[in-house]
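Example record for the data management plan.
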Amino acid sequence: MKIENSVALVTGGNRGIGEAFVRAFVAAGSRRVYAACRTKGDAAHLVKEAPDRVVELQLDVTNAESIERAAREAGDVSVLVNNAGLFVNKTLLKAPDLSTARAEMEVNYFGPLAMCRAFAPILGKHEASAIVNVLSAAGLVAVPGMGGYSPSKFAGRAMSSCLRAELADQHTSVSALFVGSVDTRMASHVQGAKEPPSLIATAGLAAIERGTDEVDTDRMAIEVRAALLRDPKALERRFAAGLKATVISTGR
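Corresponding structural encoding:
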């Protein structure tokens, strides 16, 4: 589908990768872009940049009523970008209880699924439409140091494949973006080179226009995929060894 004249909704649209997506949609000629954020006013700077096209939308992807309200207020959406995410930096066994793993699954899996369920009928009204799920290289290979986050991104990948099949007849493409090390607040703990969020947004818009199923958006994601194909057990051992390090080496 074409980005020009589309209407996009970006969750977590007030900062990081989401903010980059909002700006990319505006630059590419989208007619309207909903910058969804949990706290009212957090996307005010984006509205100020393009007041004729950017609309702030208060949204909590873990709250059913909030999602229903968003679907009513944004009933013209043709592109849905599920970008909002949570990483609490706890391992599965050292976390005090299951609450952190549940929270990561709630935001990173059930939230996007709920958004897709709410907006699928809206997307189906268009001749062509798209869903983009922003995932992680930790959804390609298990990263033990990333606790419930890595499993939630694996779930997001499976969800993307299932939805792709379900939505094919209404011509809604579903693209899964695998993100490595990007310069965002969520990755503030990561040391080493980081890609700009704009790179991920550019890859996402290209995936929408081409209808690409999966995209490795940056160098780290590409390297993880290649290593997984070459020697998956060696890659597993590499990330398992990361449990002994003080800083996790990958994540979005």
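Summary line stored alongside the record: The chain has eight helices and seven strands.
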